[in-house]
Design brief:
heterodimer; A: about 220 residues; mainly alpha; 2 domains; two-stranded antiparallel ribbon; about 0% strand; elongated; B: alpha/beta; Rossmann fold; 9 helices; 5 strands
C-alpha cells in the first residue's frame, strides 16, 4: 500500500525549489518566447536548424536543478504541467521542422540561388558596397534565415545591413509559398501554446506563493 | 570632416578593443533578446539611439579587426556572468563577429616590448602593434579605455573613444 501523500507545510523548501528552480526560469524564458513570436521571429539558426532562444522546457532548467524539475512534474499539486510542457515542446518541434523544410527548399531552389547571386552582383557593383565584405559565411543561408525569422532591419554595423535594406523586398515572394505558410502556422500555434502556458505558470506561482507563504523570488 | 586620405580611399580599417565589442554584444542581448539581467553591465551604449550612432560610425569601415588577446578578454568577462547564460553570450559574440566580418590578428608576446606589456598589459599593446603594422591603411582604434587612447595618441595613432561618439 502506498503511503498517503502529505501536502507540503507552510514555507516548504520543496515548494520554494519548484518556484525558484523551475517556475521562475521557465516564466522568464516563456516571456522571451512570446516577445519574439509576437514579432514573427522564431530565432531559427541555419547551422543548428534549431530555434536559438525558444527551447524545450527542460532546457530552461539548470542541469543541477533537474531533480527539482522532476519532483515538480511528479507531484499532484502540479498536475497537468507535464502534458502542457509536452504540448509546448511538440509545437516547438513542428516550428523547427517546418523552418528547416522551408530553408532547405530555398537553398535547393535554382530560382532562389540565382536571385541571391544576381542581388549580390548588383550590390557589389554599386558604390554603396565600396569594397566592404558582406557576410562571413554562406549568403544564401543567411538570407534564408532572415526570411524564416522575418527580420526586416539589421543593425547598422552588420555587413548585410545595406544589402538587406535594398533587396529585402525582392525576396518577399519566397514567403508567399505554401512551405512558408506552414512555418507561419506552426509559429502561430507555438505562440498560442507559449502564451497559455505562461499565464498558467504565472497563476500557479501565485497560488503556490500564497498557499505556502513563500516569496516569488529568492531574497538576496 | 573626413581627412584627404578618407576622401580618397574611404575608411579602410577599424581595430576594435574589448570594450566596444562587449558593449555591442550586451546591447543586442539586452534590447533585442531581452536579457534584462545584463543591463547593469552596459556602460555607454544604453539606448537604441546610441547603438545606432555607434553602428553608423563602424559601418563605413571596409575592414574590421581585433586582437586574439581581445577574445581572451571577452572570455574572462563572460566567465564572470551567470553560467546558464554563457553559451548564449558566446553565440552573440560569434554572431557579432560573423555579421561584422571581424578579422583577428595575433601578436606574439615575444614580439611585444616587455616594458610596454608590464605597463599596459598584452591586450592594449597588441592592439597598438596591429595599428602600427597597418599604418598604411590609416587605421582607427576604437576603445572605451582612456589610458589606451593616451598611449595610442602618443604613438601617433588615431584612437576613438566610444563615449566621445555618443551625444
Amino acid at each position: 500500500m502506498m503511503p498517503e501523500v502529505m501536502p507540503p507545510p507552510t514555507n516548504s523548501k520543496r515548494v520554494q525549489a519548484w518556484v525558484y528552480a523551475v517556475i521562475n526560469p521557465v516564466i522568464e524564458n516563456l516571456r522571451r518566447e512570446v516577445f519574439f513570436l509576437a514579432k514573427g521571429n522564431i530565432t531559427w539558426q541555419g547551422d543548428t536548424k534549431k530555434c536559438e532562444y525558444i527551447r524545450p522546457i527542460c532546457e530552461y532548467i539548470q542541469y543541477s536543478q533537474m531533480p527539482n524539475y522532476e519532483d515538480f512534474l511528479a507531484d499532484p499539486l502540479n498536475l497537468g504541467f507535464r502534458e502542457k510542457f509536452e504540448e509546448h515542446d511538440g509545437a516547438l518541434s513542428a516550428v523547427e521542422s517546418s523552418a528547416a523544410e522551408f530553408a532547405d527548399g530555398l537553398i535547393r531552389s535554382d530560382l532562389f540561388q540565382k536571385q541571391v547571386k544576381d542581388a549580390l552582383e548588383q550590390y557589389q557593383s554599386t558604390a554603396r558596397a565600396n569594397g566592404q565584405y558582406l557576410y562571413l559565411g554562406s549568403l544564401p543561408r543567411a538570407v534564408a534565415a532572415l526570411l524564416v525569422n522575418r527580420i526586416d532591419v539589421l543593425p547598422h554595423h552588420y555587413g548585410t545591413h545595406d544589402f538587406w535594406e535594398i533587396y529585402r523586398n525582392n525576396f518577399e515572394l519566397f514567403r508567399e509559398g505554401t512551405s512558408f505558410q506552414s512555418v507561419k502556422r506552426a509559429a502561430d500555434a507555438l505562440m498560442a501554446v507559449s502564451a497559455k502556458l505562461l499565464l498558467c505558470l504565472e497563476n500557479h506561482r501565485q497560488m503556490l506563493c500564497r498557499t505556502y507563504d513563500i516569496p516569488a523570488a529568492q531574497i538576496p | 570632416m573626413p581627412s584627404s586620405f578618407e576622401r580618397e580611399h574611404g575608411r579602410a580599417l577599424l581595430i576594435l578593443d574589448t570594450g566596444p565589442i562587449r558593449e555591442l554584444v550586451l546591447f543586442h542581448a539586452v534590447y533585442h533578446f531581452k536579457f534584462q539581467r545584463l543591463k547593469s553591465y552596459l556602460q555607454f551604449i544604453r539606448s537604441p539611439e546610441s547603438y545606432d550612432q555607434c553602428g553608423n560610425f563602424i559601418r563605413p569601415f571596409r575592414r574590421k579587426t581585433t586582437s586574439a588577446s581581445v577574445v581572451c578578454e571577452i572570455n574572462h568577462w563572460i566567465r564572470e556572468t551567470e553560467p546558464t547564460g554563457q553559451l548564449k553570450l558566446w553565440n552573440r559574440v560569434y554572431d557579432e563577429f560573423r555579421n561584422m566580418g571581424m578579422d583577428e590578428d595575433v601578436v606574439k608576446l615575444l614580439d611585444m616590448d616587455s616594458s610596454s606589456v608590464a605597463r599596459s598589459g598584452p591586450v592594449d599593446v597588441s592592439l597598438l602593434e596591429i595599428a602600427k603594422k597597418q599604418s598604411g591603411l590609416s587605421p582607427i582604434l576604437l576603445t572605451i579605455d582612456r589610458p589606451l587612447q593616451c598611449e595610442g595618441q602618443q604613438a601617433g595613432l588615431r584612437v576613438q573613444l566610444i563615449q566621445d561618439l555618443l551625444c
